[in-house]
## 1
Amino acid sequence: MKMLWLSLLTLMMLSQTPVAAFPLRSSDLPAQRHAEPPEAEQKFAEEYLQHFYGYTPRSQRQKRTADNHLDADWSTDLCDKVRQMQRFFGLPPSGDLTNETLAVMKRPRCGLSDVERFEETIRWKRNTLSYRITGNNSPIPRSKVHKVFRAAWKIWSNVASMKLRKRSRKEADIVISFHNGDHKDGAPFDGKGGILAHAFLPGSGIGGDVHFDADEDWSFNTTGFNLLVVAVHEFGHALGLPHSSDPGAIMYPSYNFAPTHELQLSFRDVKDVQRMYGVSPNFASLFSKNPPPRTPNKCDPDLSFDAASELQQEVLFFKDRFMWRKHPKFDETGITLISSLWPDSVPPYLDAVYENVGRNNILFFKGHQYWALRQLKLEEGFPRNISDFGFPSTVKSVDAALHFRNARYTVFFTGHECWRYNELERKMEGSPMPIKEQWPGIPTPVDAAVFYEGFVHFFKGNIHYKYDSNSKRVVSTGPLNEQLDCRQTEDNDTLAEGR
Ligand code: ZN
Ligand code: CA
C-alpha cells in the first residue's frame, strides 16, 4: 500500500504541466474570456482613468490629422494609464482592461485622484484646527454623526501632535457636510456606490473641507458603508495626506473595511501624519503595547507565508489580510488585499489555499472551516467543516494544501503527516503518511506548499524549499522572499518615540 502510494505520486507529478504552458491567461480572471471590453466598459474605464489617473480622453485631444497615427498615440497612453492603475492596486500590470481590472475600478472609493503629487507637503501651519458640521441633509441622525466625526479626529490626534476643536457657529478651518449629486464644487457626486466622499487639501476657503455623498447607505456598523472608516480617510486628506498604495493604509483609495478587521491607522499612515505635524504626546503611552500594524513587506528577511496557491497562471502568496501575486509574464509582484479579489467572503490569516481547476473553484482553509469560491463569489452553503474531506475529528486544521492539476489530487499537510485526497472520487486515499517519508528533507510542520514551474515549493518560516518530485529531494533552499521580487527600496525606518 505504502509503495503504491509512493510510485503513483511520483508518476502523477511527472505528468504535471509547467505553469507557463497553462493555456489560460490571467486577464481571463474571473474564468470567462473577455477579448475586447464592450463599449460601455471601455467608456467607464476611460472616465475612471481621467478622474483618478490624469488621463486625457481622445475626445479632448487636439485633432492634428485625421489619420490613425493619433489613434495609436491614444491607445498607448490609455494602456500606460491602465498599467499605472494596475500597479497602484497590485494587479498584474498588463495594460489590458481585464475583468479583474474593471472589477477593481468599480469598487466604491474616495473621489480624490491617486496620482496627485505635490512639490512640497501641504499642511496646516497651525496644530490646533477647528471644524464645523453644516447642512441639513445628513441621511443619519445628527447627534450620531457628530459622535462619529469626533471619534475620527481622535484617531488622528492620538498619533500626531494636533488638536481639533468643534465650532457650531463661527467660521472653521474644516467644514464637513453631506451632499447629493452636483454640489457646485466641480466634483459632483454620483448617487449610490462609486465615489463615497471627497476632501480638499489644507488651504483657505474650500481648503480642508470634507464632503460625503448623502446618497450612500451610511452606517455605524458593517452594513452599507461605515461612516467612521470613510471619515478617518477623508480627514487624512483634510490634514494634507495623499493616497497611499499601501493596501494596509487607511489612505488606500478604495473602501475595504471588513468586519474581521479592527479599524486602526497603519504604520504608514502614522508615519506620514507624524512627519507633517509631529508626534502626539500621548502616542508612546497609547501605542507601546499595541503599535500600529505594518503591512507585510516582501523585502523583510523574516517574512513567512500563511499559504500559497496557483491561480490560473499566477502564483499567490498569502500573509495576514494580504497577498502577493507572481505572474510569469511580469517581474513585479504586487501586494494587494485578499478582499480586493474576493470581497468580504475570505477570512484573513489563512491556513491553506488551493485552486481546483477541474471544478473551477478555489478553496480557502482556516481552522476547521473551509470556503469554496467560484467566479470570485462564495459558493452556497459555505463555510463548511473540513471533515468533508474525510479528516477524523482529531484533525482541527490543515497546515498546507498542495494541488496537482493534471493528476487531480491534493496533498494536505497536518503536523508531521500528509494526506492524499482524490479529487475525482472526492475521497481520502488510505491513511495519513509521515511527511519525512513522503517528502524527505522537508521540515515539519510546513507553512505553505504550491506547485509551479515544474517543482513543488515548500515554505517554512523565512525559508523556501524547492523540491524535485522526480528525484524526491530538495534541490535548493533559500530566503523565502527570493520568490518575490525585492527591488523596491521601501523606507522601513521606525516610528519616532513620543515625548
Ligand atoms: Zn481619498
Ligand atoms: Ca456615490
## 2
Amino acid sequence: MENKYVTILPDTDKHLREKCVDVRLPLSKKDKEVMEGLIQYVVDSRDKDLAEQYGLQAASGLAAPQIGVNRNMIVVVMDEEDEEGNVEQVVTALVNPKIVSYSEQYSYLSSGEGCLSVPETHEGYVPRHARITVEAYDYLAKKKVKIRAKGYYAIVLQHEIDHLSGILYYDHINKNNPYAEISGAIVID
Ligand code: CO
C-alpha cells in the first residue's frame, strides 16, 4: 500500500553495509526531509493504530542508511515517565553523532537486540558500552549537544550509530557462544 512513510531496507541491501558521510550544516532541504522521514516513522510506529493501519514495525530508533541514505543521521525515541507516572515520548534526532568517550564496563539486553532491517532473528548477547558520551548536532534543539547516556538509551544510541559505519547488531554477537557471559557487564531486562 502506498503511504507517506519511508521504506525500510533489509540488511541484504548495500546501503546497510556502507559507511556514511557527515552532513553539512545548516541542513539542506533534502537532509531535513530525510530526518523528518526518520522521525515520523519511529514516532508513528509506536502508535498502535497507525502502526496497524500502515504496517509499521515498532521502532526505538532508525538510521539514515536504513532508508537508503548514507549520511550521518539517526533518530532515537524513548518513553520517559514523569513524577505523576505520565509517559512521554522523547525524540533524539542527531546529525553527525560521534561517541567521544565510553566506559570500559559493558551492558547488554538480556533479550538480545533486534533491527527493522534484519528480518530474521540473531540470538545472543550484544555487548555495548554501559555509558557513553555523544557529541552531535541536535536537529530538534537546533544546536550542538553533548549527551551522556546509560542504560537502554545508551544501547539504542550505539546500535543506531553503528549503522552509520555499516555495522549491524549481530556483528557483535560471539559466534561460537552467543550467550557467553560478558565479564562485569550490566544486564538490562
Ligand atoms: Co538497526
